[in-house]
Each structure stands twice: as structure tokens, then as C-alpha cells.
Amino acid sequence: MTTAAPSWKTPQNFLLIVSIVVPIAFSSWMALLNNFVIEKANFDGADIGLLQSVREIPGFLAFTAVFVLLFIREQKFMLLSLAALTLGTMITGFFPSLFGLLMTTLLMSTGFHYFETLKQSLSLQWLSKEEAPEMLGKLISIGALASLCTYGALWFCLEIVQLGFKWVYLIFGGVGFALVVWMAFAFPEFKTEVQQNKKLVLRKRYWLYYALTFMSGARRQIFTVFAGFLMVEKFGYSAADITLLFLINYLFNFLFAKRIGRFIGKVGERKALVFEYVGLIGVFVGYAFVDSAEWAAALYVVDHLFFALALAIKTYFQKIADPADMASTAGVAFTINHIAAVFIPVSFGLIWLVSPSAVFFIGAAMALVSLTLSLNIPKKPEEGNEVRMLKWT
């Protein structure tokens, strides 16, 4: 006779815990990065652009996840990816050079991007269409709470204990790795109701989802790479200052992400995305003109809050997709998301050397394209009703 698993060992709780692991490792890596590369590795705008482009290469190759799934189940693959992410973070501080950072970043990023691909796939398989918007918002909220704790601990380590970058990376990456090992033994292997396609799937009727995903990846680079770099290079923010700024960001996410998920479920994906992209146009134009460190910080917080609305792209896809396409399309979507991410950091890094404002004006133009695309989402998207116009057959 088999013993039933404890009631807390559910797919939903598995997703909640992995949403804690990633902020501990990846958020600490990201929060320290700009100060670490400037203070220890003497990076300029072109160097950070190259590093960020290399970081996005595994995202561009995320479609290969579907081939790995021929040999290993998604849940185990996710845990192995988390192990790579946390190990990459642990060793980052020991290699303060361009080549060393390229290598550790590649390891960390490979784990992170495979994980994100698998998390999207498993979330859309394990959650019903009715519960997905609010639950995805809850995952963001839990991740934000974990990030709050992480950034608070980072600030304490940097300002009070005054630990060096090397030891901070080692500690936070190590905590994440320990949680991954615990999860590998604590949770059973969960079954999925629909057998997933083990080949690449590209469908014409998903074209709007692909286009929104591509533009989302381009927009993300402006925030991830250049908004943070602006804070350090132009306004002289310290590592502790950046950490406090991230604390504010994730406090807002913790307070509002679940509500945003509920809001998307109520008003629909089209209205939610229109609101996001109209706001982003204003934010990017603001970055181009800002001369005050305080106003720059305010723009940064608002910019980050808009990320929660982007989960509407995922729930839109869940409503229009064949359930068997979730795993394959998650990989394809991450590759599409990272097409722009591979060339934007390095090319925009060169533009940055000439005119930082031009980078943000281009970002505003990207948001305008996304706004136009989002207007094509039907009021009630479903299979057979994927778009309002320009329907490709």
C-alpha cells in the first residue's frame, strides 16, 4: 500500500517555492552586477552591453529545452536548471574580469533561462484557465516577498557587515543551491494531464503571441541593462542604494502583483496590456530627459511595476493554445523573446557611448509598437478567436 503525499506537497506549492529560490540567487546577482563590474572589473558601456548580450544567448537557445525533454521530465529538468543558476551565482565574485564574468554569467544564465521556460510551461499545464491569472500574480507576489528579504539581507551584508562582493555572491548563491537540493528530495514527481509535444511547434494562429513576446523581450532589455546602468553611471548610486531601490520595487510587487493578476482576469488581456504600454511610453521618454536622481528612481520603480502586467501575454496564450503545445511553445517563446535580447545590449551599448537619451527614445518607439499589437487581442480570446484582425490562415 502506498502512502499519500502530505497535503502541502502540491504542484502549486512547488511553483511557490521555486518562485522563492530564483530571487535569492538571480536577484542578488542582478542587484550587485552594475557596481561589481564598474568597481572590480572596470567595465564601460560597451563591456556591459557585451556581457548582457552573452547573458541572453541561453534565452535565445531556449527552444532546445524541448529536445532535452526527450530524455528527462520537465520537473527534474527544472531542478537541474535551478542548480546551474545558483552555482553560477555562487562563483561570480571569484572572477572579476571580462572573460571570467562572461563564463560565470553563461552558466548562471543557462540555468535561469531553462528554468523560466519550464516554469511557464508547467504553470500553464498545472493551473486552470480560471485560476491562472490570479495564481501567476501570486507567484510574482511571493517572488517579490523573497526579493524583499533578499535585498534587505544584501543591504545588511553590504552596509552593516561590509562583506566583499565575493562573499555576498557565495552566500546567496549557496542558500539558493541548498533549497534546490531540499526540493529535489521533498517533492514527488507530479503528473500532467496532457502529453506534451516533443518537437518544435510554430503555428500561424499564434502569430500575435509571438509578436508580443518579441517586443516584450526588446522592452525588457531597456530596463534590465540600461535603466540600472543609468542609475550608477549618471547618478552615482552605490550598491547599497541600488539594493534599496530594488527593495522598493519588490515591495510594490508584493503588495500589488496578486491584485494585478486579479485585475487582468477581470478586465481582460487587451485592456491590461494597453495600460502597460501607454505607461511605458511615458516612462521611457522620462528616462531620456531626467536630470534628478530622485525622479530617475521614481521612473525605475514605476517601470518595474509594469512588469507584472506582462503576465497578460501568458494568460492570453493559455486561452488560445492547444494544451499539448505548452512545453514546446514555452521554449519557442523564450527564443523569440531573446532574439532582440541578443543584439540589443551590445548594439545599444555602442549607441549609449554617443547618446544615452537615444537608447530610451528607441525604447519608447518599441512600446508604441507593442501598444499597436495589443489592440489586436480579442475581448474574449480562445482557440479559433485568437485575433481581432489580420487573421493569418
Number of domains: 1
Low-confidence stretches: none
Overall average residue pLDDT: 83
CATH superfamily: MFS general substrate transporter like domains
| CATH hierarchy: architecture | Up-down Bundle
Shape: globular
Major β-sheet profile: none
Task: Provide the gyration radius in Å.
Answer: 20 Å
Structural summary, described in words:
- This protein is mainly alpha-helical.
- 75% of the residues lie in helices and 0% in strands.
- It has a single domain, classed as Growth Hormone, Chain: A (Up-down Bundle), CATH 1.20.1250.
List the helices and strands and how they pair.
Layout: H1 11-39, H2 45-60, H3 65-68, H4 74-91, H5 98-126, H6 132-160, H7 165-186, H8 207-233, H9 239-267, H10 269-289, H11 293-306, H12 311-320, H13 326-354, H14 356-374
Helix pairs in contact: 1-4, 1-5, 1-6, 1-7, 1-9, 2-5, 2-13, 4-5, 4-7, 5-13, 6-9, 8-11, 8-13, 8-14, 9-10, 9-11, 10-11, 10-12, 10-14, 13-14
